[in-house]
């Protein structure tokens, strides 16, 4: 029996269908950006600098459906009310998270995005999905927009530029409640860039128990033990 929820029924499911279809063009857009990215790496720019100078303003680069469904059920299992996301893009992952909050009964996803045009579109997409009241999109650099979070945080998604996963985690860590889950995307795609992050999470020295899940492009699943 299929249990009716915000992902398989109603406006959020329709908006997700449209956005995943639109994001399919990303692989071609990526190929077009490859020379600029390569130049950035030759010039020894950081990942953030290289991708910004390659101006990936139109790329969705979203999580997969499978990852979105995993985020949704994780947020439901935690009874999450306070979620933080690094890297909104056009709001695909934010919709999965906000849908879980709606189905949990209440809550807020605080998500942040560097590109103003993506912020504006994400807000429209969330409104169209009837989830506007469950998400706050903060425009700007996560290292500034995610300071001073107040509530105990239940769930975090890290999906911005890869060299910032650890600094952003350090910012949020004091707000995590024991048992909070931190999910980080692209562990397989950016194995080298994310090695320090994975080592930090898996060392057992930093308050986390962690494993890499073969979902999408590799999801690091970390539980904060306090
Ligand atoms: C992989 S995409 C996010 C995809 C999104 N989670 C989804 O599933 O639809 C990464 C996004 O992070 C944003 N970003 C990168 N560095 C950032 C920063 N320092 N602060 C805020 N956003 C940032 C980029 O502009 C880009 O849109």
Task: Describe the SSE topology.
Elements: H1 11-23, H2 26-42, H3 47-53, H4 65-78, E1 82-86, H5 92-104, E2 108-113, H6 116-128, E3 135-139, H7 142-145, E4 153-158, H8 165-172, E5 176-184, H9 195-202, E6 208-213, E7 219-224
Parallel strand pairs: 1-2, 1-4, 2-3, 4-5
Antiparallel strand pairs: 5-7, 6-7
The protein binds S-adenosylmethionine (SAM).
Global geometry: globular
Uncertain stretches: none
Give the name of the CATH superfamily: Vaccinia Virus protein VP39
CATH class: Alpha Beta
How many whole angstroms does the radius of gyration measure? 17 Å
CATH architectural grouping: 3-Layer(aba) Sandwich
| Domain tally | 1
β-sheet strand percentage: 15-25%
Neighbour order of strands in the largest sheet: 3-2-1-4-5-7-6
**Overall mean pLDDT:** 91
Helical region count?
A: 9
Short key terms for the protein model shown above:
binds S-adenosylmethionine; Rossmann fold; alpha/beta; 7 strands
General description of the model:
By secondary structure, the protein is an alpha/beta fold. It has a single domain (61-224), classed as Rossmann fold (3-Layer(aba) Sandwich). It is 43% helix and 19% strand. It has nine helices and seven strands, in the order H-H-H-H-E-H-E-H-E-H-E-H-E-H-E-E. The protein has a seven-stranded mixed sheet, sandwiched between helices. Helix 1 runs antiparallel to helix 5, helix 2 (26-42) crosses helix 3 (47-53) and helix 4 packs parallel to helix 5. The model has no long low-confidence stretch (mean pLDDT 91). Bound molecules: S-adenosylmethionine (SAM). The site of S-adenosylmethionine has 21 residues, from helix 5 and strand 2.
């Amino acid at each position: 029996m299929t249990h009716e929820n915000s992902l398989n029924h109603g406006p959020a499911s329709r908006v997700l269908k449209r956005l995943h279809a639109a994001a399919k063009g990303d692989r071609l857009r990526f190929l077009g950006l490859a020379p600029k990215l390569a130049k950035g790496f030759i010039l020894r720019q950081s990942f953030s600098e290289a991708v910004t100078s390659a101006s990936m303003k139109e790329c969705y680069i979203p999580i997969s459906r499978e990852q979105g469904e995993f985020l949704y059920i994780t947020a439901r299992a935690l009874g999450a009310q306070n979620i933080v996301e690094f890297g909104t893009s056009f709001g695909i992952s934010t919709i999965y998270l906000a849908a879980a909050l709606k189905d949990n009964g209440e809550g807020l996803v605080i998500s942040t995005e560097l590109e103003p045009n993506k912020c504006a579109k994400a807000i429209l997409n969330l409104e169209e999905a009837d989830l506007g009241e469950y998400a706050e999109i903060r425009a700007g650099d996560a290292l500034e927009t995610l300071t001073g979070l107040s509530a105990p945080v239940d769930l975090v998604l890290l999906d911005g530029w890869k060299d910032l996963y650890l600094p952003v985690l350090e910012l949020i860590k004091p707000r995590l409640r024991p048992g909070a889950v931190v999910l980080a995307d692209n562990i397989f795609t950016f194995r080298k860039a994310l090695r320090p992050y994975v080592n930090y999470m898996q060392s057992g020295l930093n308050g986390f128990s962690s494993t890499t899940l073969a979902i999408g492009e590799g999801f690091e699943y970390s539980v904060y033990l306090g």
